[in-house]
Amino acid sequence: MEFCPNCGKVLLPKKGILHCYGCNYEKKLSDDEKQDYVINKDVSDKQNIIVTDDSINTHPTTRGLCYRCGNRELEWWMVQMHRSDEAETRFYRCTKCGNTWRRSN
Ligand SMILES: [Zn+2]
Ligand SMILES: [Zn+2]
């Protein structure tokens, strides 16, 4: 961050120059300095990317039997229930009709 030599306010980057909004002092940026400001802008843009759950919402499939429609391909995943000393519960979901149930081992 740089400060205006005339009035001491913060200089803000603006189209390749640093501009003082206090006294309209302007300072040209060198190419190296321009790159610094471009990189800073990219970083702040990346922080605005929203990660949705959709990208991790796929479960492995296994052979099994859906008692509702007879389909033999099931998605499955493990869930730790309530207390950490309880056994994990395995959930199954039929890939055909969406029927979901759980089984404790
Ligand atoms: Zn100034
Ligand atoms: Zn089914």
Keywords:
rod-shaped; 105 residues; N-terminal domain of TfIIb; transcription; alpha+beta; 7 strands; zinc ion binding; transcription regulation; binds zinc ion
**Helix and strand run:** EEEHEEEE
User: Quick one: biggest sheet?
Assistant: 4 strands, antiparallel
Q: How would you state the average pLDDT, rounded?
A: 80
- The gross shape turns out to be rod-shaped
Query: Hetero groups bound?
Result: zinc ion
DSSP helix fraction: 10-25%
Structural class: alpha+beta
Q: Termini, distance in Å?
A: 60 Å
Strand order of the largest sheet: 4-5-6-7
Q: How many E-type strands?
A: 7
> What is the total domain count?
2
Indicate the low-confidence ranges by residue numbers. none
Topology:
Blueprint: E1 11-14, E2 17-20, E3 26-28, H1 31-46, E4 61-63, E5 73-79, E6 89-94, E7 100-104
Antiparallel strand pairs: 1-2, 2-3, 4-5, 5-6, 6-7
Bound molecules: zinc ion (2 copies).
The site of one zinc ion has 8 residues, from loops.
Fold and architecture overview:
It is built from 1 helix and 7 strands. It is an alpha+beta fold and 105 residues long. The protein has 2 domains: 1-51, no CATH class; 61-104, N-terminal domain of TfIIb, CATH 2.20.25. The radius of gyration is 29 Å and the shape is rod-shaped. The mean pLDDT is 80. The structure holds zinc ion (2 copies). One zinc ion binds next to loops.
